[in-house]
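Give me structure tokens for this 427-residue protein.
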Amino acid sequence: MSYKRLIPCIFIYKGKAIKWFDDKEVVSDDVIGLAKQYCDKGADELIVFDLSNTDDEHDEAIDLMKKVNRAISIPMVAGGNVRRQEDVKKILYTGAKRAILNFSKPLSFELIEEVSKRFGKERIAVSLNDFDALFKQQHLIDKFSSEIIFMHRLDLLSVMNITEIPCVVLTDTMEQEEILKILKCKGVKGVSGMLISEPALDIDAFKNHCISEGIQMTSLESTMSFSDFTLNTDGLLPVVVQDYKTNEVLMMAYMNEEAFEHTLKSGKMTYYSRSRQCRWVKGETSGHYQYVKALSADCDNDTLLAKVEQIGVACHTGNHTCFYRQIVGNEYDSKNPLQVFESVYATIADRKQHPKEGSYTNYLFDKGIDKILKKVGEEATEIVIAAKNPNPEEIKYEISDFLYHAMVLMVERGVTWEDIVKELADR
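Here you go.
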């Protein structure tokens, strides 16, 4: 059985979330907050469309998409105002999983091959408003895209006989039974639209309703069942929790079968509280959720390792990790590269927010982007010169200087190390 997804959709217009294409009714003034709300309520993915009219509004929407992607832990697919390859690149650089080409516009027919070859067909989706566009452009869609987003209802049975590309149906129906019918269609991977995007909808509860109707709704697929694990004497499975970026151990907890299944269904780490004798979704009261990145079993199948994206802190004491009290050993000097980069970046960002007299970093920010770019260029040249000299130590110093100035540029332009790491991983 194929797995189905519930995918809210945000239409951005002048920095706000509006209700629908032909209706400028504002859903929310806080687009980032709305996206995070969808994520926290159990959405599996998010679609974002830019409906701006001017280049300035489009650039603002692109910046907003970037901030949305940082605030959520689910994949984002985005589109709107795509007229050239550069527009696709901007959307993908926001962190979007795929960029959407609007196939109601002939320009997209000419663009799809170019961007598919440049970024990969797995990064390209197409949106369709009618059946004819699919029929006439099927050869392009099948060859150069990996997802179809149908705007409004189409004859889904006919569609499934034409293409095998996974489809998302974005519909204006508010009837739950209609949503269930769509999800049951072969080839439909998910549903979006007015009902799923209703801020008041309890997405987790609606998933349970879908499951009761025989529809498999899960964000994660496991190669092991809970019965495959060897449990402790209390009938529980120990879970070691690790930060997926830094590999720092955050906490240790326990799961029963209900918690394990809820973790797979929701994508949020869920445990069994031995003190309260009940299921416990980490972050449900504090907002400090743990989003699953990977689950691994140990060699004896009696312990689970969870790599997670930690929102906020892991420990109820307010510490980032529960293992913050060293009782044996010398002071630990972290050499984790990403931790070092993040630490330096955080210091630079703090200087920008809280200027310090005499700070060279603040001197660069005060002089502005041209000065920062000049220094980045100079340091890049110094690397080239150092590389021609016999002493390799010089390269180390010059690269360090370059990386510092590059981080100043990153802070100035709002680019994070997470953005860079994600871009490299996608490549």
